[in-house]
Amino acid sequence: MKQDLLTFADWSPEDMKALLSLAVTIKNSPAEYASALAGKSVVALFEKPSLRTRVSFDIGINKLGGHMVYLDSQAGKLAGREDAVDVAANLACWADAIVARVFSHETLVQFSQAASVPVINALCDKYHPCQALADYLTLYERFGKVEGLTLAYVGDGNNVTHSLLIVGALLGCNQVVVTPAGHEADGDIIAKAQSIAAQTGATIVVSQSMKDAKGADVIYTDTWLSMGDDTPLAAIKDTFAPYQVNESLMAETGASYVMHCQPAHRDLEITGSLIDSDASLLMQQAENRMHGQNAILTHLLSS
After folding, report:
1. Which parts of the sequence belong to the Aspartate/ornithine carbamoyltransferase Asp/Orn-binding domain (predicted)?
2. Residues 103, 148 within the same domain
3. Which of 48, 148, 295, 303 has most Cβ atoms within 10 angstroms of its Cβ?
């Protein structure tokens, strides 16, 4: 029976730890997995533009011995041209897996129902599971563990926030989410993360105060406006300015490192000098997108 990855919310802590371990192994011993996808083809369908996701999947699949076919959906949404269920069913006739970067999570649900091959969420409006796996792989490499660490996310409560919460809770990583009023993470997803954390011993703090980030091992931020959001920057800049991640915040919290999923807007949500500092993990995160995704592909296509 095929397995999809739309979100890690339905995974067990044991399975999440095993996937992280697989990512570590694949990164450290790439030659052993050079044929993991031999003879297999993966379709990558993107409604949204991408740098890291597209390139890391393309090169990563090649390193596993597979072949990727990129479809940009004519640089727009699927809606109006062909029903999502028909697109997925057709792709499954030829491909061994479908990677989809879409506007709506519902599109992925329809893909999952219609496709007879694994469907992987490469980003939607609710989740970004591939990013979260890469991020916790990065933390594992820096600290030698994930369990017991504290990650403080500062900024807009969005798809990245949601996946960080879920994967962090599964791995026993304490979570602090600090957002401006009106920009909180989804309440149902927070509740799901809290229920997982109750099993693994992780703590979850949701706040509007930067003071609650004190004591975090790592500070994480993302853009103030998600891709596709046409809200003028001027309309939200004053709201988010107090939540900028900068050298002062790092000193006040005592955090060792800063993370950002990119693309980053220098001197808006994060200072350019911090991006370029020794505390920055941004490029390690970007590199680990490929290794995390290769673990996902290897797991799903060998199950």
Report:
1. 147-299
2. no
3. 295
Among the options 52, 54, 96, 101, which is catalytic? 101
Pair (268, 123) in one structural domain: no
Q: 135, 156, 217, 222: which one is catalytic?
A: 222
pLDDT at position 225, please? 82
- Is residue 260 flagged as an active site residue? no
Which of 276, 225, 217 lies closest to 246, judged by CA?
276
For 33-94, the DSSP string reads GTTTTTT-EEEEEESS--SHHHHHHHHHHHHTT-EEEEE-GGGS-STTTS-HHHHHHHHTTT
Query: Which residue range forms the structural domain that includes residue 141?
Result: 131-285
Report pLDDT for 234: 85
**Based on the domain organization, do 122 and 149 belong to the same domain?**
no
Annotated catalytic residue: which of 52, 244, 261, 299?
Answer: 261
- Please check whether residues 75 and 136 belong to one and the same domain: no
Number of domains composing the chain: 2
In whole angstroms, what separates CA 42 from the centre of its chain?
Answer: 19
- Give, in degrees to the nearest 5, the angle at Cα 164 between 112 and 75: 50
**pTM of the predicted protein model:** 0.96
pLDDT of residue 59: 98
Per-residue model confidence as pLDDT tens digits over 245-280: 999 999 999 999 999 999 999 999 999 999 999 999
We report the CATH number of the domain holding residue 211 as: 3.40.50.1370
Exposure string (b/e) for 159-182, b if CB count within 10 Å is 16 or more? bbbbbbbbbbbbbbbbbbbbbbee
| 101 tagged catalytic | yes
State yes or no: is 131 an active-site residue. yes
pLDDT tens for 209-225 read 999 999 999 999 999 98
**Predicted local confidence at residue 227, as pLDDT:** 65
Active site residue 128: yes
